[in-house]
Each structure stands twice: as C-alpha cells, then as structure tokens.
Design brief:
CATH architecture of chain B: Orthogonal Bundle
Structural class of chain B: mainly alpha
Structural class of chain A: alpha/beta
Radius of gyration of chain B: 24 Å
Number of domains of chain B: 1
Distance between the termini of chain A: 30 Å
Number of strands of chain B: 0
Strand content of chain A: 25-35%
Number of helices of chain A: 10
Bound molecules: adenosine-5'-triphosphate, magnesium ion
Number of helices of chain B: 10
Shape of chain B: globular
CATH superfamily of one domain in chain A: P-loop containing nucleotide triphosphate hydrolases
Helix content of chain B: over 70%
Oligomer: heterodimer
Order of helices and strands of chain B: HHHHHHHHHH
Largest interface: A-B, 35 and 31 residues
CATH topology of one domain in chain A: Rossmann fold
Shape of chain A: globular
CATH architecture of one domain in chain A: 3-Layer(aba) Sandwich
Chain lengths: ~260, ~290
C-alpha cells in the first residue's frame, strides 16, 4: 500500500456544466501528491471534463460554467486574479491524442519554456535533453533534433508530446487516455514512462481501461454519469469495491 | 422501360458532352486572348524594355510599372498588420456570439464590395483632408483600405482552418492566446496567408477604379494622379483616336504577365502543404 502524503489537488463541490448540461456533479475528491491517480469510467462519464477542470482548460468553450473550488496546494485556481497561464504551467494536460506542432523536434520541446520566457540556448538545450530523456525518447532522436517532429512514428509523437509537457516543469501532469489510437507496443512504452514519472510528479490519468489503471495507478477514482462513485487505493478498489457500479465495471458488466 | 432508360442515358451523355465542350471553349477563348495579346504586345513590350519608351507614343512604361509594383507592395504592407490583428481577434479572442457573427458577415460584405466604392472613399473622404499633391498617398490609402477586409477575412479563415489540437496543446502548456496565434497558428497557416496576400496584391495592381475615381474628380491644379498600369491603359485608350495601337497591347501584356506571375506564385505556395499524417482533422472541432 502507498503511504498517504499531502493532497496536491483538492476538488470541493465541483460541478461543470456545458450550457444546460451538467457533466460533473458536486465532486469532492483529493488527489494525493507524488502518486498516480487513475480516473476511470465509461465513455461520457466525465473523465476528460474532470481533468480539464483541474487546469482550467474547460474554459476553451464559451458555454462552460464551473462551480465549486479546485485547490492547488491550498489555493483555489478559480478565484479571481489567478493567472490562468501559470495554473496551466503548473498543472500540465496531455489531452487525448496529442499532436506535435509542425516544428522541429527541438522546437516542440522548447516551445513551452520559450513561451514562459526562457531564451538562453544552453539552458534550452538542457531542458530539451532532460525532457526527452524523461519521456524515453532521447536515444531515438538525439541525432536529429532539428528534423520535423511530423517525421516521427505515432508512438514517438506521443512520447514527444509527453516531453513537450514536461519541459515547462509542471507539478501535476494530467494525461487523458494515453492509449488512444496507439499500438500495444507504444502503449507499453508509455506506461513504463508513466511509472517512472510518478516518482517525481503528481499524476492523474483518465482511462476507460481497468487493466491500464491496475498497471500504473496507486489510487482509483471511479466516475459514473458525472458522479464520483468511489475513490480509494487501487488494490482496495480492485479487491473490495464498495459500490455495485464499480464492481460491475471492474468485472466487465457494463450497465 | 428499356427505351426510357436508354433515352435517359442519351440525355446524360448530351449534358456531359456539352459541359466538356463549354469548358474547352472557355479555356480556348482565354488562351486565344492571351495569345493575341502576346502576338500584338510582345514586340512593343520588348522595345520599350530596350529603349525605355514606346516609339510611337513617347510614353515611358517602366516607371509606370514600377509605380504599380510599389503600390501593390505598399498597400499590402500597410493593410496586413491591421488585417492580421483583426483576423486573430475574431478567431482567437471573440466569444461565439451573434454580434461576432454579424461583424464577420459585415467584414465579408466589405471585402466583396466593388472596388470603385473604395475609389469613392478616397475621393470623398481622404482627398479633402489630405489635399494637394498627395494623390499617390490617397490612392495608396484607398487601396490599403480596400485590402483590409479581404485580408482580415482570409486571416480569420486561415486560423479557423488550423487543426484545433495545436491551439489546445499550446494553451495547455500555459501559452497565452496571442502566443498561441503568433507562434503556432500563424506559422502553420503562413503559406495560405502569403498566397492570399499575393492574390490581393494582384487585385490592387490590376484595378483601375480607385485611380480613375480620384483622377476624375481631381482639380487639374493639384497635379496628375499617380499613373498605374491599368489606369495608364485606360487613360491612353480614352485619349487616343482610332483603333488600339501597339503600345496599348504592350501595356496590356505587361499587366497580364504581372498578374499571372503573382497568381502563379500563390498557387505554388499553396501546393506545398503541411503533411499531418495521422492528424487530428477528423475531430479537431469536436470534443476531446
Ligand atoms: N465541450 C463540450 N460541450 C458540450 N458537452 C460536452 C463537452 N465536452 C463533453 N461534453 C459532454 O459531457 C459529458 C462528459 O464528457 P467527457 O468528455 O468528460 O467524458 P469522458 O469520460 O472523457 O468520455 P470518453 O471516455 O468518451 O472520453 C458527455 O456527455 C459529453 O457529451
Ligand atoms: Mg474523454
């Protein structure tokens, strides 16, 4: 069992509406620091909505309304006066099916640091190298950093997007559906990277695969139709689910 | 039954072949026109390039041509920053609303306005304020204003056409909307944008209406309006008696060649496209 550390992110009575439609209903959930939490649930359960609300990315749609609080290290990211770009730097989101920018491999990874004001070449070199290593891509691309990122294979593209997100030195990394549209070999590679990353970062991943959640997560939050049904250490949820809906989902009896 | 379907088949074939025929006819007429211009104009044009002036009219063509090129480039340079700002604002900042849709429609309407309206603007609004001796400036401003809505809508359209994942991923890294537009979206769309600017320049360079408009109302004491290629063609034809002379054909040929070069460059620019294998186009505007 994982030792419970401080909570990095705390959702208090969090509701998200798209126009008149309520996608998340009064979520109370605490994300432990320095661990991987899997948000699971069927299609349309609200996993992506939850991840996006943790970095204020729901605001990309004009008709979104968010109620309640999201505390990052005790500070509400929705309170007025908060710099949204700084929130998004600290809480990185790798959305479903991320895609490299049509730039070189180097410029993709250096994009975030540059946007946040880092100019010195050798500093950028360091960041790019470190991030690509963390994403498990360095050895494959170190000789061709100036090549277009679009020349990479789909699996490498996915890894590059992880490196791109790591380059801004986030504290939390939200990863939405890391297996989406990828072959099993690439997925296995990315899961290895995730296992490495959770030593240093607070991770939240959305997935509808119980197997994946079992392999990489320390905690599981189970969502159903916008409600948080169950939250607990992964081993507990697998061994003794408290809610029938969770049990059904684990055993593959989808309702 | 049989005869009816056979008859339908015959009708279809007739429609098809007449469409093919008209297409060829249109292309043929165009080719004939250009060929005729080349035939009549190439000699005089070659001579004017060699000696500087038309032998039989004494008028110098090259300065007029340079002035036209200058007008095209200057108008585009003047209009572009403002137009891009407008396009970026409408695409990246403005919330989806009825007002926004209305503004877009209005700009689109302005972009499609006949160019003589902009000549009218130059004559009616700019000339009285800028006054004497500023004809070149007035024509330049009127042309830039004419380009403004065209380049605004094309910036907007080009930004809307960028795969949505680029915008999403950039913002998720903590980039501002402006940084996202400037560093990711515009570079992605730069070929489309450049092609549209070239097309706009070709339009400015080929349009006589604003100059005519300003020239017509200009008190002669203010001096000549700036002569551009199309205006030169127009005024020298109006002023001459008898059928078109060889220097008219030379002028027309130079005008057409300039336009063809710009349009051709635009086509070339657009042909080299970004290769986004396995991209995100299918769901880019949807939910993620
Ligand atoms: N931008 C949006 N506008 C309107 N409705 C939305 C939007 N995004 C999501 N929804 C709706 O909110 C609900 C939750 O969607 P969400 O994408 O969070 O689910 P999900 O658990 O991530 O599903 P999936 O496994 O398919 O990714 C769904 O009913 C969806 O249709
Ligand atoms: Mg989702």
């Amino acid at each position: 069992m994982v030792a419970v550390t401080d909570d990095k992110l705390v959702m208090r009575d969090l509701s998200v509406y798209y126009g008149g439609f309520q996608a998340l209903s009064s979520i109370d959930l605490s994300i432990p620091a320095g661990a991987a939490t899997a948000v699971i649930g069927g299609s349309g359960a609200g996993k992506s909505s939850l991840l996006r609300s943790l970095c204020r990315m729901n605001e990309l749609w004009d008709d979104v309304r968010t109620e309640g609080q999201v505390l990052l290290d005790g500070q509400d990211i929705y309170s007025p006066g908060v710099d949204v770009t700084e929130v998004r730097r600290r809480v990185g989101l790798i959305a479903r099916h991320p895609y490299p920018f049509p730039k070189s491999i180097f410029d993709n990874v250096a994009y975030g640091p540059r946007v946040h004001g880092i100019r010195h070449r050798h500093e950028l070199d360091e960041i790019v190298k470190r991030s690509l290593k963390q994403a498990g891509l360095w050895n494959e691309v170190k000789g061709r950093l100036q090549d277009s990122a679009l020349s990479l294979s789909p699996g490498q593209k996915a890894s590059l997007c992880i490196a791109r997100a790591l380059a801004v030195q986030p504290e939390v990394l939200l990863i939405d559906d890391p297996a989406y549209n990828l072959d099993p070999v690439s997925v296995a590679k990315i899961e290895d990277v995730i296992l490495e990353l959770k030593q240093q970062y607070t991770l939240v991943l959305a997935t509808n695969s119980m197997q994946q959640a079992g392999r990489v997560s320390d905690y599981i939050a189970f969502l159903s139709e916008g409600f948080l049904v169950e939250f607990g250490p992964t081993s507990d949820v697998f061994a003794r689910p408290k809610d029938r809906r969770t049990e059904d989902y684990i055993t593959g009896r989808f309702s | 039954m049989r005869t009816r379907s056979r008859r339908r088949l015959a009708a279809g074939a007739a429609v098809y072949s007449s469409i093919v025929l008209t297409t060829w006819l249109a292309a043929g007429i165009l080719l004939l026109l250009v060929g005729y211009l080349v035939f009549r104009g190439l000699g005089p044009l070659a001579k004017v390039i060699k000696y500087g002036v038309f032998a039989n009219s004494g008028s110098a063509l090259l300065p007029i041509w340079f002035r036209t090129l200058y007008l095209m480039a200057a108008a585009a340079l003047l209009a572009l920053p403002l137009a891009m700002g407008t396009g970026i604002y409408l695409s990246e900042y403005a919330r989806e609303s009825r007002l926004n849709a209305w503004i877009l429609g209005a700009i689109d309407g302005l972009a499609k306005m006949p160019p003589i309206i902009y000549g009218l603007l130059g004559w009616g609004a700019l000339a009285p304020r800028l006054g004497e001796g500023k004809t070149a400036l007035i024509v330049l401003l009127a042309s830039a204003i004419w380009l403004l809505p065209q380049l605004s809508t094309m910036t907007y359209a080009a930004l809307q056409d960028v795969p949505g994942s680029f915008r999403r991923d950039s913002l998720a890294l903590g980039a501002s909307r402006w940084q996202t537009a400037w560093r990711v979206l515009i570079p992605y769309a730069r070929r489309t944008l450049a092609a549209k600017v070239l097309e706009g320049m070709a339009r400015v360079g080929g349009e006589a209406a604003p100059v005519i408009m300003i020239a017509a109302a200009w008190p002669s004491s203010y001096g000549q309006p700036p002569t551009t290629l199309p205006y030169h063609l127009y005024s020298s034809l109006v002023g001459s008696v008898g059928p078109a002379a060889s220097h008219h054909f030379g002028t027309a040929l130079l005008l057409i060649l300039t336009s063809i070069c710009l349009q051709g460059a635009a086509v070339q620019l657009r042909r080299i496209d970004n290769d986004l294998t396995g991209s995100v186009r299918d769901w880019e505007r949807g939910r993620w």
